[in-house]
Every structure is written in C-alpha cells, then in structure tokens.
Amino acid sequence: MPLDNYWQKEEIMPRRELEELQLKRLKWVVNHAYRNVAFYKRRLKELGVHPSDIKKLEDVKKLPFTTKEDFASNYPFGLFAVPLSEVVRIHTSSGTTGKPKVVGYTRNDLENWTNLVARCLYMVGVRKDDVFQNMVNYSLFTGGLGFHYAAERIGATTIPAGVGNTRRQLELMMDLGTTAIHCTPSYALRIKEVSEEWGLNFEGSRLRIGCFGAEPWSENLRKRLEEFFGIKAFDSYGLSEMNGPGVAFECEEQNGLHIWIDHYLVEIVDEEGNPVGEGEKGELVLTALTKEAMPILRYRTGDITFLIDEKCSCGRTHPKIARISGRVDDMVVVKGVNVYPSQVEHSLMKIPEVCGEFQIVVDRKTLDNVTVRVEVPEDKVNSEKLKAKIEEILKSDLGVRVNVELVKKGELERTGGKAKRVVDLRKNS
C-alpha cells in the first residue's frame, strides 16, 4: 500500500528495523530511569542490574516489574524522572480504590502521545473531512484530551461533547452530522437505549465509525452496535500509566489490536511473572520506551490477552494483541472456573430479549454463589422460560452454572464512563 494509507512511516517499518529501534530505546529508558528515578535505581541495585547490562531485547527480563502498588507507595511524584518545571500536563487514574495514579507529560511526551492516537484514528479511516464527537470525560481521564488532540491533529472537525446528557449527545450527532464517535462500549449501549426510547434510527445518518474502549467488551456487543448505528466498531486499548489511549487499536480487519512496538515493549506473563507460551493467554506487561517525564519499566497492567504475531493484510508490521478478555482483579472464580465479565456479555448479547445491561453479583458467603442480574423488557421479568434459556446459554459458554436474576430495563445503574460489572458483596460482610 502507498504511504498515504498510513499516518506515520513507522507503521510499516520492517520488523528487524523495529526491533533495532526498540533496543536503542530500551537502553535509553533504562538508563533514564536509573539515573533520574530513585525508586528504579534502588530496585535495579537490589537485583544487581546496571543499565549497561541491557544488551539485547531479551534482557528486559532482568528488570523489575512495576505494579500499581508501586504507584501508591511513590504517590504523587516519586516516579517522575524530570522536575515539575518540565512537566506540562498531569493526568490521573480514577482512584476508585485509593489514591489515584499520577501521570506526568513533557512536551515531547504529549507530541508522541498525540501522534500515537492520531495513528490509531487514521488507521480506522478518520480524515480531515470527518466530524468527530468525543463522548468521554474531559477532566483528569486521559481519554478526553487524548482523542481530542489526535482528531484535531488529523484535521477532523472535533466536538468536545464530554460524557453524559445522552439526549443532547443525540441532538449533536444528528444536527452536526457526526461521522465518527468515541465513548465506552457501555455508554454506546446507553445511546442505543435512549435512541430506541425516542424511536430514533440511524438509517441515512452520516455516522460510519465508532471507537470504543476503556473497558473489555465482546464480539457480540460489537455486532449489536454495528447493526444499530450502521457503523464499523473498533476496539481501543490504552491506560494512563502508558500515556492513555493509543497503546493498541484495531485496524479495518477488526481481528486483534495492533500494538505500537516502536513505543512499547510487550510481554505476556503468567501469575508468577513467567513468560507464557506462544499464543497463550496471560497478563499484558508493558515497558514504555519513549516517555521522558515518567519512564515505566515492565508494568503489570492486570489486563488479560495474548499476542498475535502474524502478518496483517493491512500492511502494518506491528504485532497484534487479542481484545482484552478481562482484568486480573475482575475475574470471578466459580467452582474452580475463571469467569470474566466480557465472557458473560458475549453470551448475553446472543439473546435478543436481553437489553444489554448486566451485573455479576458475588455472594458474601462463598465464591461459588454467583448471580448474574440481567436487564430484560418489563413483560419478560417473570418469564421462567427466558430465565432458564439464559442460564443454559451461560452454562454452555462458561462451562459452569450460575444463577440468573431477571430485572426490568432501567433498573441497573448507568454510567457514561466504565461500567461496573462485578458487585462483590463479600467486601461488606
């Protein structure tokens, strides 16, 4: 394909050249962290490792893992490698389970990040004549400004719609001729729900691209969203610790997310931190290769995926990761079987009567007592036949039986951000 089909030439760089670039940048970032972050200097010395020991890409295994607990113990600025006078922006994680993770950016960091997200948007077809409606939080959440500046970098007309006020969002989409949207998949479901209440359909609308991320979602949900909105729906992956969005993104093949290895070194490990076999599922571990303000070595993301390292017909040479199947801390063990919310969602989206919203409730007495609360139309709430059908499909797909409770549409909590899919009652016992 001609270079015009790509945002940056690095997207189609030969793998050998990419690996040479990775090694050059890995050496730089280890040295940068060692010299400027007391935490990393101490950890490397404890392991008997010096930056000069990094001679090949495999030597990344000599480095220590970084965890979310390390962010907590170094809050707020302990992982910064530059003085605050060189930090031009700060973002944070949500901090729902304690102090938020604080992330800093130099001007070069922001430039790299903007180009990475622009690379993703350009890959799925966003161009300067598009109208891009960004329906996520614009405060400390990285998804707002991350996508906003990237869409503007491409030249698209960008609507900073923010999150919530769904009826207003729909008015903007129709009145301004929105062609591309970005939000969480659970909020896209909410937009679908309100559209149906209004009797609104998207036949004849200009909308053609949907970018959805910030939470795991299923292939069957993709089908629902594509059919309702008349779009191609693309999966987006990123995390605050690695800049934000723009770490990985689907191309038009919609078969795995290209992960940009010129900026991130990728590992997949098991629970003990050992490499998994080729094509095996495990926890994604990332080393940021170009971050100046906050270099991060071997970060255990908590996200479950596997590596797809095969040639892609889109022409990009970067490997892909499978869509995130869940998070380590969202996994529920039912009778010895690991169950993730995205698996439950995939099964539920097969059933036309299911409205879309659901919650997995873990009983305070035992992990084996799990109930899936499922929204259905009000006239179906007392349907034993539908309840039995859902239980049977879940048992077949998950390999384990769970309880099902039918609730009327609108009963479960809505949010414009990440959906809360697991309710653990044991924490209150």
From TrEMBL:
Pathway assignment: Aromatic compound metabolism
Keyword Ion transport: no
GO molecular function: nucleotide binding; phenylacetate-CoA ligase activity
Keywords from the named record: Ligase, Nucleotide-binding, Phosphopantetheine, Phosphoprotein
Record-annotated AMP-dependent ligase C-terminal domain positions: 336-426
Listed SUPFAM superfamilies: Acetyl-CoA synthetase-like
CDD domains from the UniProt entry: PaaK (cd05913)
Subunit field text: Monomer.
Protein name, entry field: AMP-dependent synthetase and ligase
